[in-house]
Amino acid sequence: MPGTKEIRAKITSVKSTQKITRAMQMVATSKMRRAQERMRAARPYADKMRSVIANLSAANPDYHSPFLQDRPTVGAIGIIVVSTDRGLAGALNANVFKQTLLLMREWQDKGAAVKLCLIGAKGMTFFRRLDTPIVANVSHLGDRPHVKDLIGTVKVMLDEYSDGTIDRLFLVGSEFVNTMTQRPVVTQLLPVAEPPAEDLQEHWDYIYEPEAAQILDALLMRYIESQVYRAAVENVASEMAARMVAMKAATDNAGKLINEMQLIYNKARQAAITKELAEIVGGAAAV
Amino acid sequence: MAEPHTIQVEVVSAEGEIFSGLATMVFAPASQGDIGVAPRHAPLLSMLKPGEVRVETPAGEELFFFVGGGAIEVQPHRVTVLADTALRAKDLDEAAALAAKQRAEEALKDRSSHISQAEALAELARAAAQLKLIAKLRKVRG
């Protein structure tokens, strides 16, 4: 029976691959649900923060925080790229990187330098091949990113902005639309877009402790951090959704493959039996 | 709207909502000394020190929340505590920023170090693709 043994070995090997992909699919499904919950949990803080900042800047029209002011000339920009730590998540990271490269090209054409800040190991492996300077990096945040792990990384970029080495700060990450769709999005973090006026319910005449300017800057800093945090959590949800879909496809493919190979195996086995019988019959007839 | 003797309190952090409900009194560690907020308090905005926020509910319960700092916004019928989940101080943040920079530099230095789990998984994907090709070839031949 030439070949049947090899086919059998291949079937076993594909079966074990299928087991792995199926397990990964299930793990991704449950992790995705938890990540979605965390995304939801992060929303009230950002909303509250936005309304406080809106109230505050409306109450202090004469203080112009550097975080809110548009700079007339842009000599350099900073980009925070949120990517995953692991692969096997479809085109998720590739889409984010493509979007980043487009953004980089757009500003480089305008004569602005680009500085990168990378969140996630995949971003590091991709962007270190380029000549673009990478000023900060954090990876292996796990499935539950914490704000405290991001503070330092974000601070590097905020400092660069305050020092004037970058004039604009962007965030590129994946937006979790639904399980099937994740979209790369570019958000401008700095300068912070002024909150729209209709958001304000009333004007409050606050008592400040310490000063309004200090509070505003501290809040803006936290607001930016919370946006980066949200992007990191959303990235986990997107990663899990993408992996779930990719692993489902892989499991299905493995199933098809096993069926095909089983057919080939059966045919080969049957052919061998038929041949043997023919030999026996032929032998008997000769006697 | 809130009852005359209560005030709506929300304690939120970046990682989730911690508390939302009515209270008769709220105490918080403001940056320039602890404050107590009763309903109809004057509008106030203050940073918070690390410490505990105490909420007295209309039912007479006392709830404690630890905050690592943050900010408090007081409006006559609403108190919002924006809590930090992480303890932060200027030099702590500075150290974290430095660490982030170093990580970037180190990662750029050793371009071909250890095989990470990510790479092992990629290896697995490649193996699966190879199997598929072998199967196809077999089909063509057989």
Please write out the topology:
The complex is a heterodimer of chains A (287) and B (142).
Chain A lengths: L3 H56 L16 E7 L9 H18 L3 E7 L1 H7 L6 E5 L8 H17 L4 E9 L5 E9 L16 E3 L2 H75 L1
Helix pairs in contact in A: 1-5, 4-5
Chain B lengths: L6 E7 L2 E8 L1 E6 L2 E5 L6 E13 L5 E14 L2 E6 L6 H20 L7 H25 L1
Parallel strand pairs in B: 1-7
Antiparallel strand pairs in B: 1-2, 3-4, 3-5, 5-6, 6-7
Report what the structure shows.
The complex is a heterodimer of chains A (287) and B (142). Chain A has 287 residues and is of the alpha/beta class. Chain A has two domains: 4-26 and 247-286, ATP synthase, gamma subunit, helix hairpin domain (Helix Hairpins), CATH 1.10.287; 29-244, ATP synthase, F1 complex, gamma subunit (Pyruvate Kinase, Chain: A, domain 1, 3-Layer(aba) Sandwich). Chain A is built from five helices and six strands. Chain A has helices at 4-59, 92-109, 121-127, 147-163, 212-286; strands at residues 76-82, 113-119, 134-138, 168-176, 182-190, 207-209. In chain A, strands 3-2-1-4-5 form a five-stranded mixed beta sheet, with helices on both faces. In chain A, helix 3 links the parallel strand 2 (113-119) and strand 3. In chain A, helix 1 packs antiparallel against helix 5 (212-286) and helix 4 (147-163) packs across helix 5. By secondary structure, chain B is an alpha+beta fold. Chain B has two domains: 1-111, F0F1 ATP synthase delta/epsilon subunit, N-terminal (ATP Synthase, domain 1, Sandwich), CATH 2.60.15.10; 117-142. Chain B has two helices and seven strands, in the order E-E-E-E-E-E-E-H-H. Chain B has helices at 90-109, 117-141, and strands at 7-13, 16-23, 25-30, 33-37, 44-56, 62-75, 78-83. Chain B has a seven-stranded mixed beta sheet with strand order 2-1-7-6-5-3-4, with no helix packed on it. In chain B, a hairpin with a 2-residue loop joins strand 3 (25-30) and strand 4. The mean pLDDT of chain B is 79. Strand 6 of chain A pairs parallel with strand 5 of chain B, so a sheet runs across the interface.
